[in-house]
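Blinded run. Sample ID left blank on purpose so nobody reads anything into the name before looking at the predicted structure. Input follows.
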Amino acid sequence: MSKIDYQALREAAQKAKELGNISRYTKATIARLEFKEADTPDAVLALLDELEAAEKRIAELEAKLDSADKLQDSAFRHGLQNGFSFGQTDNQAGFEECLSAYGTGKGE
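Blinded prediction complete.
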């Protein structure tokens, strides 16, 4: 994967956007050429690869968050069934044992 100079690409794109529509303007022509030089197929492919990797990582994190939410909800319901919620018991060790057993049963 090629190294992308994000700042240079951003500046070239911004200049091309601001000045690119002005015909017969030397700075506009230069801005368009600078952007074309920075916008290479390798740069676009590298950006797409990075985008794909970021989207994959986001999906992984969302799946982990969903799993954690389900585990927390299930552990809470299990605690309610066994009377370990809302301070109904002083048996903290029993509560921790209950959660520990639940976690190991789920492959944690």
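Unblinding after everyone has recorded impressions. The helical segments are 6-19, 26-38, 41-81, 92-105.
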